[in-house]
Amino acid sequence: MNNAQARVILDTIADMFPDAHCELNHSNPFELTIAVLLSAQCTDETVNKVTATLFSKYRKPEDYLAVPLEELEQDIRRIGLYRNKAKNIQALCAILLDKYDGEVPQEHEKLVELPGVGRKTANVVVSNAFGVPAIAVDTHVERVSKRLGFAAHKDSVLEVEKKLMKRVPREEWTDTHHRLIFFGRYHCKAQNPKCGECPLLDLCREGKKRMKTNSSRKPIPKAKSSKTATV
């Protein structure tokens, strides 16, 4: 991929999803951190259903520490890996109170030290809560980046992030992150991508391969109906 092709891809996805945004419901950096922590191996839709009641019950770190772990587990039971996530939430809240006066730190290097907060979560928080340009690579961003040639299929998540950061202008990192997610979630899906109507098909090796494979499949002939002989 050259720079001109990368620019076409970025502009096309921007036209397709001009309003792409973080779909996790939140009202402050703390809620966003909890929501992204919960979203690991879980859909944003499910997380939003859980946090609709969770965020009315727990408003600050002290609230999460005021209940037994088992109660918090029950509150997020619909979320995958809920036991481990509940434990991480309470440990995270204890650190916020102990080291940061109950506030979520803005620095990436401090965020990744919090329990349950990896590089992807930290990137989401700094970009959406604090306006720091970042590209968080989730399953959608990774899949789309590899299909469109921003990264190689063998690349790790970190390598995908670094290659995107090189190709995408820094001021577009956050918007591109959201647009790639929307493109992967609603168009270039894992199982049934909309290759036939994709404006980027000519730049997508996998898409062209899929279309060629589908067109080469011969339709199964219908069985001829046999007429019953009359006596």
UniProtKB/TrEMBL annotation:
Top-level taxon in the UniProt lineage: Bacteria
Domain HhH-GPD: 38-186
Catalytic activity: 2'-deoxyribonucleotide-(2'-deoxyribose 5'-phosphate)-2'-deoxyribonucleotide-DNA = a 3'-end 2'-deoxyribonucleotide-(2,3-dehydro-2,3-deoxyribose 5'-phosphate)-DNA + a 5'-end 5'-phospho-2'-deoxyribonucleoside-DNA + H(+)
Gene3D superfamilies membership: Helix-hairpin-Helix base-excision DNA repair enzymes (C-terminal), Hypothetical protein, domain 2
Residue ranges of the region described as Disordered: 209-231
InterPro entries the UniProt entry points to: DNA_glycosylase, Endonuclease-III-like_CS2, Endonuclease3_FeS-loop_motif, Endouclease-III_FeS-bd_BS, HhH-GPD_domain, HhH_base_excis_C, HhH_motif, Nth
Cofactor note: Binds 1 [4Fe-4S] cluster.
Enzyme Commission numbers on file: 4.2.99.18
Protein function: DNA repair enzyme that has both DNA N-glycosylase activity and AP-lyase activity. The DNA N-glycosylase activity releases various damaged pyrimidines from DNA by cleaving the N-glycosidic bond, leaving an AP (apurinic/apyrimidinic) site. The AP-lyase activity cleaves the phosphodiester bond 3' to the AP site by a beta-elimination, leaving a 3'-terminal unsaturated sugar and a product with a terminal 5'-phosphate.
Full protein name: Endonuclease III
Gene: nth
